[in-house]
Request: fold
Amino acid sequence: MIIAPQHIVTLHYILRDSAGSVLDDSYQRNAPLQYLHGHDNIVPGLERSLNGLAIGARTTITLAPAQAYGVRNGALVQKVSRSAFEGVDELVPGKRFQAQGPEGPRIVTVIAISGDEVTVDTNHPLAGETLSYSVEILDIRQATRAELAKGHPLDEGIEHTQVEDRKIP
Reply:
């Protein structure tokens, strides 16, 4: 079986920035990634690059910013009132928050604080970065109807019912 849309893929990866520093390592955490291929569950360039790989494949994929978390957008650096952080005990540059935006949840990073004004960056923390993924494909299986309906793999504790060798439309 090869990676194609409507398959659940399990893989290990090591994510590095352009300087070679490790940003994330699923081997070290003993937590392989599982995702539904073709449903935008992972960064677009990585998903495209994995298409067609088989179980056991090992490869390194380098992604330009536009293929990963996007290019940095200066318009996403904004000044907001400190009152937007009501209830936050410690507000310091570098602190990150999750905020609800029009397109869903976003990570907001505090850049600077000046009196009652807070400068925040709503770019993804990895926006503008060239990233390198070293991956190992551990498993590929057909997604169940429930997983297709939800758009992602279901928790392992949930029983999956599937007819073998039959594609789910």
Observations:
- The two ends are 17 Å apart (CA to CA).
- Helices lie at 26-29, 44-50, 145-150.
